[in-house]
Structures are given as structure tokens and as C-alpha cells.
Amino acid sequence: MDDTQHSQQLALFLASTAHDMKNSISVLSGTLERLLDGAASQANTADPQFAQMAQMLYQTRRLNDNLMQLLALYKQVGQPEYPFDVQPIPAIELAEQVAALGRVLLQSRGIAFEVEVDPDLIWHLDEDLIVGVVSHAVNNAVNYTRDRIRLALSQIDEVLEIRVEDNGDGYPQALLDAGAEAMSGVASGVDFRTNSAGLGLYFAREVARMHRHRGRHGAVRLENGGLLGGGCFILTLP
Amino acid sequence: MNSPLERKAEQIDWAGKNYLVVDDFIGVRQLLRESLRSLGARNIDQAASGGEAIALLAKTRYDVVLCDFNLGDGKNGQQVLEEARVRNFLLPSSVWMMVSAEKSVESVMGAAEHQPDAYLVKPITEGVLLTRLNRAWHRKQVFRPIDQAYAEKDYLRAARLCDEQIAASRVHETELLRMKARLMEKSGEPEKAREAYERVLAGREYQWARSGLAKIRMVNGELEQARQMFLGVIAENRYYIDAYDQLAQVYQHMGKYEEACTILERATKLSPNSVPRQRNLGKVCLKLGNVALAEKAFRKCIAIGEYSVRRTPDAYFGLARVCGLKNDPKEALVLLGVAQREFGAEHPDMPLRAKITEGLVYHESGDYRHARKAGDELETQLNARPERPDVPTCLEMATLLFAVGVKDAPVELLCYVARNNHDNAVLLDEVQAIFDKARMGEEGAELIRAAKKEASDLMNQGVLLWKTGKLGEAVAWMRTARNKLPNNQRILFNAAQVLVSHMKEKGYDELMAAEAHEVLAHVDQLQPGQQRFAQLMEQLAALVPKAEEAAAEEEPPAPPEPAA
User: Fold this and answer.
1) ipTM of this predicted complex?
2) Which residue of B has its CA nearest to A103?
3) CATH for B16-142?
């Protein structure tokens, strides 16, 4: 009895702290983006401070992603705790938002971003969650790619497939294993302390599984190869 | 970036629009302002609280409002939106974006009367903002003619426009079907509403569509099926709060007030800031005699109502009853005084309702002397003004007056109810039951018979004049009938029908059209969602001469219904 009360208070405390931090982080990353954008337009990209700022933006983004996932997770995404909100959304608008979210970071790192999407494709999904997961995958790919990232959305049979591919050396075996584990349902085995990618994958899997239709549910997987020959993050939604 | 993203049909000029940003955190306001500036926006106002926002909204018509849901003390974002809509501070084209730190329960509840055009979750970035603004804007274009017809209460025309748009815009198909279903419910066409919901469900499981089907079952009296469907919706998504409210309604129809109370309590835990939900919870608790919970609900209702344009005096009346049950009539009288001060201006029947509650409070606390005094005062009030409140209030009042020993006033009230609802068998049974309880069974039956005859004689004479082509006389006759029985829905519908027929035969007449509109608005207020209302509104709208269009093929008017 005392325990549940304690954990409720803790959850409340976490929630309000996280909200507060979220405000600060949005201001931080917004300001950084603006500064970077300004520097880029004045062709100051050679300045060593530019690279440092780009790194700061990357880290801020990671912080923000982690916070968003924590917020959603402590409220147990996947359990009926999150107000899950499916709507018909044009795939091209998903791509548009992911591209916009990544634009400054990708440009500052000199990474080319390619998008492939059928302009007439419409899918039923929770837009906020899916944009969050795919953006996180793009941010991740920044770490692994050489200089290209490809986002492709297409309907394959009865599912929407969203691919984030890069032209790096591919994911290390440990990460591929973590991906397989996350999907096989022994996710509790993923050690978030030693494997920072584990949290992101776990979150992505939960989000995918919430999307259900006619007895099937969404999934994520990691591969090496794809069109660019590097790492591939693949999200499928029924 | 050589992507398909640069393909964009019509670009919207976001630079020239007027913006309002509402957030209590200055950092977020600045960030949003910068984001808007990068879209080219020049005119951006800011408000740090709901009060400030309302003051600005009263002065300027904004094209886009970005409003945080959580604004600290005072009004929250939803209350600002409601007030802005009710006070007409928004243009039909205005886009309202509700912003929150996390996905809000409200965004999936679905049934809120005043929905924003979109919900945004922080952090808000330019790209996401632009995509959502564009989408909301295009959606407005698609819905504008439908919203217009809806505002004119021409639900059948609005539904036809939905059908036309469904063919043209696939992205909005689901939402258009939802709108169409709602319109069909409002037009008394549950079958067509059901078709629309099922069409949605054939593509994808949506809780609001499932809930819509359940509601149709409930209205049909298939309570057990409705109950199971609502339970299924809640099991799928426990944040779909509308299903809780509907389920509570099902339980009330079943007479299961304990269950209704439990489900409303769960709903208020998930979404506590709804005035109507807290009010319903309080009322159900009163029925159950759960005084403590009733008190809590009514107090919460008053507290959240403080900043809401949707507040009503009911919570004060409820709380006064609670005080009576706790043997504290003094506190009850204080509350009734407050209610009259706060709501007297907008609610003309406040003195009457306050006096009824006063009588109930004394009666329930066993103070029969004061109860009788309240009854006598009520009778004096009734004699002083000819207007009567709504039917439930009349019945409540008659019951109370009989109980405290007043005779003439309740008899008059019950006759009034019977005359104005002469074809509503269920209601007439209720009236008879009140007579029975007052040991006036036979006398009551005779009075009801006379009331029924008076109403049907008035109706039949009108129909006779109409059938024999004496349209002018029919119109005049129905005016007299309306004067005698101002709240009889059958008479009101026939009066409107005769006016429509007159205009169809003898040409459009602005005064007659206005009269018909007034009659129909009144009948819709008495009982919304009737088929004849939707049909007559459509016929009436079609009569208005159009600038160029020639009068196209017109269906012959349906004859007014003869009395049963």
C-alpha cells in the first residue's frame, strides 16, 4: 500500500520534472538550430566552432529523444496507459516532418538525405509516435553513416514499410543482436546501462506493437545491406 | 535534397497571417515566435495567461492561435478555446493548435464539443509546425461549406456535402464519414449514421466509430448490446473517455445507478476537468444517496466551472440538496443565493428553480413548515409569470408541490405538460403516476383526457384547412394553436410545415421564413435530433431564392401529420 503510494509520487515527480526539462531542451535545441542555420548561411562552416555546435545539437537531440521515450515509457507505452491516437496520415507528410526535424543536424554534418515516398500513400497510425521513432532512427544513423541517409516509405503487401538506411559500415553485431532480442520478446534481457541503443529499440518495438490491424501488429528490425549497403532500420506497420 | 517532398500543390501564404502564441513560459513563447518568423510571419502577438489571451482575442481576429493547454492558474487552454468560440472571437477560417508537453488525453477523447484543429506535442519544431498548419488549413477548406450548413442547422445539406467531399479527398474520408454519421444522428436517421460508421470500420477499427454504433443501439433500447460494445471500446483504449460517459448513460437507462456511478468515477479520475461529467456524477450520486461523493463531485464541478463559459447553475442546486441531506439547510440557502447572483442574468427561470430546490431541501431535511412556505411562494411565482420551465422541472415541481400540500398549482402544471405532450404516452404515464401519488388518480385521468382532446382538435382543424387548400387560414390557425400550446412539438412541426407549404405555393416570404425558422429552432431546443426537424430545415433552406439558379426539380411537400 505504502509502496504504491510511494511509486505514484515518484511517477508524479518524474513527470513534472521531465516536463520542465522538456521545455528547456526544446528551447536549447531550437536555439542551436537557429545558430547553426545562421552560421551555414554565412558560409562559416569551416569554423571549428561550427563543428562543435553541430555536435552539441546532436547531443541535445539525443537527450530530447531519450526524454520523450522515458516520458512515454514510464507511462508504459504499449500498456493501455498512453492515449494512443490513430489517424489517416499521408506518408509524404510523415517524411516531410522527419526530414524537417533532421535538416539542420544532417546539413551540419554534411550528410545527404534522400527521401523516397509514394505521394498518394495514406496510412493509419499515431503520427507523433511514428515521427518520433523514425526521427530517432535517423539521428542514430547519423552516427553510423559515411555521408548518405535514405528514408523510404512504401506499401508492401498489406503493410507500410519505413526504411532508414545509411552507407556506413553497417551495425555492429552486438546491435544487430540487441535488435533481434528486442523483437523476440526477451526485451527484458536488453541492458539499458551498457547498451544505449537498447532503449531506443525497445521503445520502437513498443510503438510498433501498439499499431494493430486485423490480428497483426507492427514490428521493427535491424539489418545490414539495403540500397546504400550500410545499416538499415526497418519499421513495418499493418 | 532531390526529394519528392518539394512537390507541394498550392502553397499557403503563412507570412501575411495574424498569429497569437499563448504559453506561460517565456522561453517557449520566444521559441515559437522564432519558428513562426522563419515561416515568414510578421504579426505575432503573445499572451502569458488565459486571461491575457482572451483580452487579445477580443480585440484581434487571429488566423492562427498556438495555445498551450496548461497555462498555470486560471483558465486552461481548452477553456480559452471554448470561450473564444462561444464569444465569436474566431473566424471560421481560424486555425487553433493546442499545444501540450505530452500527448493529452483530450486529444483522443473525441467527443469534446469544442475541438481544436490540431494537437501538437512539445517540442515544436518548424517542420512539424508547417506540416500540421498546412494540413489544418486544407482540412478547413474541405470542411468550410459543411460547417456552414451545420451552423445553419441544415443537416441534410451538410451530409450531402460530406458525400461530395468524400469522393474528392481521400485523406479526409474517415473524418468526413464521422461528420456524416453525426449529421445523420442529428437528423433522426440512425440507419444512415450506422452505415457511415460501418463504412469506417470496414477499413480500420476506430473506437469512435464502434462507440457510434453502440450509441445507436442504446437509443434503440438494445441496452445490453450497447453495454458490451462500450465495454469493448474501453478495453481497447481506456482513454476513450466518451465511451465511459455513454456507458454511464446505458446503466442509467437500465436503472443500474451503482454501476453508472462507478464508471463515471473512473472517467473523472482519467479526465477530471469536465463540467458536465462532474455534474452527471453528482446527480447519479444524489440518486444513490451517496452524499459524500455527490458533494465532492458538485464542488469540483463548481471549481472547474469558475473559468469556463460552459458552467451552469446545476452544480449549485445539487450541492444545496447535499446540504439539505446533511441537515444543513442554512448552508443550502447560502448556495442558492450565490447561484441566483451568479446565474440570474443568463437564466430567467433561476428564481423558480432556486425556490424548488429550497422546498426540496426543507422537505428532505424534515422541516415541513418551511417546505410548505416555499411551496406557497412557488405558487405565487407561477401565478405571476405565464412561462413554464422545461418538462423535467415541471414534473419535479408538481411532485414537490403535492408533497408539501399545495393543490391548484401542481394540477395546472401537470395539465400544461399533458397539453403540450399529448402524443407522448410514456410522459403521460408519468404525469398520471404523479396524480396517483397525490391520491387524485381519477381526476387526473379525466384532466389528461381533456388535455389530449384539446391538442388534437387544434391539430386536426389545421390539417383540415391545409388539405382543403386554405393555406392562409391554415397558417393563421396554426399561429393560434401555437399560442395556446407553445411547447407542443407536433403542433410546432405542423405550424412550420404549413408555412413551408404556403411559401411553396405562393412564393417565398421573408417574414414567413423567419417565423418558420423560429418555430423550428424552438422545437429543436425542446427535443434535438428529430427527423422532421432536419427535413423541414432542408425544405426551408431550399425555398430561399438563389441569385441565378432556376427553381430546380422539387419534391412535393409531405402533408402535415394528422393528430393520432
Assistant:
1) 0.79
2) B127
3) 3.40.50.2300
All residues of chain B having their beta carbon less than 8 Å from the beta carbon of residue A93 are 131, 135
CATH of segment(s) B458-543: 1.25.40.10
pLDDT digit string, tens, across residues B411-425: 999 999 999 999 888
Nearest-CB residue to A96 (from B107, B123, B131): B131
CA atoms in the 13 A half-sphere facing the CB of B125 = 27
The distance of B30 to chain A (nearest Cα, Å) reads: 9
Helix axes B77-86, B50-59, angle to 10 degrees: 30
B483 in A contact zone (CB under 8 Å):
no
DSSP assignment string, B174-190? HHHHHHHHHHHHHTT-H
The pLDDT tens digits for A10-58 are 655 665 666 667 777 777 888 888 888 877 777 666 677 777 888 888 8
At residue B336, does pLDDT exceed 70?
Answer: yes
| CA distances from residue A84 to A177, A238, B243, B385, B431 in whole angstroms, order as listed | 29, 16, 15, 53, 47
Residue A80 has pLDDT above 50, yes or no: no
pLDDT tens digits for A151-191? 999 999 999 999 999 999 988 888 888 777 766 655 444 45
Q: Do A99 and B125 touch (CB under 8 A)?
A: no
* A-contacting residues in B 72-101 (Cβ below 8 Å): 101
Contact: B3, A71; criterion CB under 8 Å: no
Cα gap A28→A156, rounded to integer Å: 39
Average pLDDT for B341-353 = 88
Taken as a whole, chain A contains a residue count of 238
Angle at B285 between CA B278 and CA B371, to 5 degrees: 110
Is B58 a residue whose pLDDT tops 60?
yes
> Which residues 185-224 in chain B show a CB within 8 A of chain A?
204-206
Query: Considering only CA atoms, which of B311, B250, B235, B327 is closest in space to residue B278?
Result: B311
pLDDT tens digits, residue range A108-151? 888 999 999 999 999 999 998 899 899 989 988 988 899 999 99
Asked whether the beta carbons of B490 and B454 are under 8 A apart, the reply is no
pLDDT at B470 over 70: yes
- Whether the predicted pLDDT of B181 surpasses 90: yes
User: Best interface-test mutation with B: which of A77, A97, A134 has the largest number of B CBs within 10 A?
Assistant: A97
Nearest CB among B4, B30, B101 relative to A115 is that of B4
Helix, strand, or coil here: A124? strand
Contact between B502 and B475 under an 8 Å Cβ cutoff? The reply is yes
Residue ranges, CATH 3.40.50.2300, chain B: 16-142
Put simply, the answer to whether A83 touches B206 (Cβ < 8 Å) is no
DSSP state of B124: P
Residue ranges, CATH 1.25.40.10, chain B? 458-543
Contact B28 A97 (CB under 8 A): no
Contact status, residue B267 vs residue B248, Cβ threshold 8 Å: yes
- Chain-centre distance for alpha carbon A232: 13
Percent of chain B residues topping a pLDDT of 90: 62
Q: CB distance B30–A131 less than 8 Å?
A: no
